[in-house]
Amino acid sequence: MTTASLDPANRPAVTRLIDFRPGMDMYWEIVRNGEDTDGEVLEVNGWLGPHQPSAPVHVHDNAEDSFEIVEGRLDVKLDGTWRTYAPAERAAAAPGHRHTLRNTHGEPVRFINRHRPAADYEAFFRDMASLTSTGKMGAGTPHSPRQAIYAAMLFKAHPTAIRTSRLQRFAFAALSGLGRMLGMSL
Description:
Layout: H1 3-6, E1 17-19, E2 26-32, E3 42-48, E4 64-71, E5 74-78, E6 81-85, E7 90-93, E8 99-102, E9 109-116, H2 121-133, H3 145-157, H4 166-181
Antiparallel strand pairs: 1-2, 2-3, 3-9, 4-7, 4-9, 5-6, 5-8
């Protein structure tokens, strides 16, 4: 770490940082959000550590989700096919297209992620970061029933952000209800 990186003037404002660590080796710096752009885009500079599993395959019904690689390699699954993207390449999931991402490589990846329009994505990712950074939810597939319940509650709390399969939605509704009965909350 350099002296320059310790200078507060060189660090992103806390309110612009979404940190998923230690539960998921990922953090984001918000470049532009819905408030900045009248809802047009949520744009973040993302960092994903090596060997990070994929999130569940999902769909954004009314938004494009794109990934522009800055450094490293990012694996993106679009409509059932995995492809590795390198610096200066861009992957984009059009509204309604199934997708996910992961980093199977030995080095971190830096990318620019954009959700157009911004919709509820910032709130969804802030809640997700809160759950992963506290260990309530892990990276990729949940490793315990408790993590599965929290993941279900997250998806249920933000129904317009991400759509999963019909079976996943059914399971998430049941798990989310169980979580509420157990007194769990985001």
